[in-house]
Specification:
With 273 residues, the protein is of the alpha/beta class. 35% of the residues lie in helices and 23% in strands. It has 8 helices and 12 strands. It has helices at 36-47, 75-85, 128-133, 151-161, 201-213, 216-231, 239-254, 263-272; strands at residues 11-16, 21-24, 27-29, 51-56, 68-71, 91-94, 101-103, 122-124, 140-147, 166-171, 182-189, 192-200. The strands form 3 sheets. An 8-stranded mixed β-sheet has the order 5-4-1-6-9-10-11-12, sandwiched between helices. The protein has a two-stranded antiparallel sheet with strand order 2-3. The longest helix has 16 residues, at 216-231. The chain binds cytidine-5'-monophosphate. Residues 15, 75, 94, 96, 98, 100, 125-129, 143-145, 158 line the site of cytidine-5'-monophosphate.
């Protein structure tokens, strides 16, 4: 792809918004997600020159120009759309508020009221994020943890259980998170964390994308690119820039303690170069 952004040449797949699980032809189960965070992340990744696919549940936001949209309704649709395009993705960010359960069977006719109580049997929806993280050639996989309490603890648990590369935790409640224009976030990865104070979702998205872009795998990518360029004598005019990038990468690795030696990262690098 064109451009000089930190994600030039990278394919980023993002899920956003809620899903809708039909009860009958006129009713559904859903949640309060507005899609704002996922859409902001798509814009931020595009601004860094990534190729961006945004898989969106029903929201009232305009499609960000330049982003490839996939509109879906149910968790099952979102799961299929994700796996359709995840094959050669470098980064997957699951910002959607996917329904955990859907009605066991969708009634073909409108349910009529009768008794004083009624119950609907629910069954689990596929966990899209977990299924992507489990792929043999998984992209750099980032999840969200929207919690009302014990935010950091639940987030770290999810990072481990779903075998994610990174998790973005935020508290949701009456005053923050869902359907608001700003958000705060605590980000965790295997051996580090970073906290972002409450700010506009667009600004937070830029910072989160910058963090994802300098994640360990990409640092390795930069170093390998520099090595390849030097070896094949193709550095040309860009060589100072490349060496500065390498230097920045080394600082991140050595000073800030980013690990670059996990098996998963190495496998990804072997795939790419
Ligand atoms: O386990 P929990 O639903 O809290 O995890 C939240 C994270 O998992 C979010 O990144 C969300 O997009 C993703 N998720 C998913 N598919 C599901 C449920 C959650 O991708 N069925």
């Amino acid at each position: 792809s064109k451009g000089e952004g930190v994600l030039a040449g990278r394919k980023v797949v993002i899920t956003a918004g809620p899903t809708r699980e039909a009860i009958d032809p006129v009713r559904y189960i859903s949640n309060r997600s507005s899609g704002k965070m996922g859409y902001a992340l798509a814009r931020a990744a595009l601004a860094q020159d990534a190729e961006v696919i945004l898989i969106s549940g029903p929201v009232s936001l305009p499609a960000p120009p330049g982003v490839e949209m996939r509109h879906v309704t149910t968790a099952q649709d979102m799961h299929e759309a994700t796996h359709d395009c995840i094959g050669n993705a470098d980064i997957f960010i699951a910002a959607a508020a996917v329904a955990d359960y859907r009605p066991a069977d969708e009634k073909t006719q409108k349910i009529k009221k009768s008794g004083e109580t009624m119950s609907i049997e629910l069954v689990r929806c596929p966990d899209i994020l977990q299924s992507v993280a489990a792929l043999p050639r998984a992209p750099f996989t980032v999840g969200f943890a929207a919690e009302t309490e014990n935010v950091d603890e639940y987030a770290r648990g999810k990072l481990e259980n779903k075998k994610l590369d990174m998790i973005i935790a935020n508290r949701v409640g009456a005053d923050c998170g869902f359907d608001t224009d700003d958000n705060a976030a605590n980000v965790f990865w295997s051996d580090g964390e970073q906290r972002f104070a409450k700010t506009q979702k667009s600004e937070l998205a830029n910072r989160l994308i910058a963090l994802v872009a300098i994640a360990p795998e990409h640092i390795c990518g930069v170093i390998v690119s520099v090595e390849t360029a030097v070896r094949t004598n193709t550095v040309g005019d860009n060589h100072i820039e490349l060496l500065l990038l390498e230097l920045a990468a080394c600082i991140l690795v050595d000073v800030l303690g980013f690990s670059r030696k996990t098996d998963r990262e190495r496998r990804r690098l072997q795939r790419r170069y």
